[in-house]
Design brief:
mainly alpha; Four Helix Bundle (Hemerythrin (Met), subunit A); 8 helices; globular
Length: 168
């Protein structure tokens, strides 16, 4: 098994769980768009914002992993962003108006691609170090939980709560 096989499996399972909620999400269309969808404490996400966020960060974080892998061994490679990043917020704002079926299709296509790349990484790749603007030095392996794998699993729970009427 690859160095990051278990993490890749978890990512695919979480993305599949999100895609498995497509019929429920589409049954609620049109979902109202949230007035506040940035990092503010009063922000409230519905399915449009959540799906736009997931479909945006899957390729983004793969690119950041690739940035770290391609960097020099001389010093940790700067990577990543923080929640207040205006491009991140702008993409969510833009893409939340895309029909849900397209957002689901993008997630269904991107998650296996990201997982396949993770499965190609060696132990040495997983140990490569990058420098996050808020979290400091992180290995590629350490990046997966907060930015990809655990992050996606958290959004499965969030989407289920939204659909049950208990989350926002």
């Amino acid at each position: 098994m690859s160095a990051l096989g278990p993490e890749a499996d978890r990512l695919e399972a979480a993305a599949a769980a999100i895609v498995g909620l497509q019929a429920q999400v589409e049954a609620g269309v049109p979902w109202p768009l949230s007035d506040v969808y940035g990092p503010e404490p009063e922000a409230s996400w519905g399915p449009p914002e959540l799906l736009a966020h997931v479909e945006e960060y899957l390729p983004y974080w793969l690119g950041e992993i690739e940035r770290v892998l391609a960097g020099s061994d001389a010093a940790p490679v700067p990577f990543g962003r923080v929640a207040t990043d205006p491009v991140r917020i702008g993409v969510i704002g833009r893409d939340r108006t895309i029909p849900a079926r397209e957002l689901f299709a993008r997630i269904a296509a991107d998650a296996p691609r990201v997982a396949a790349r993770l499965r190609q990484l060696t132990d040495a790749d997983a140990a490569r170090v990058g420098l996050h603007p808020a979290r400091g030095q992180m290995t590629v392996r350490a990046m997966l939980e907060p930015f990809l794998v655990g992050h996606t699993e958290g959004h499965v729970t969030q989407l289920r709560e939204i659909l049950a009427g208990t989350g926002h």
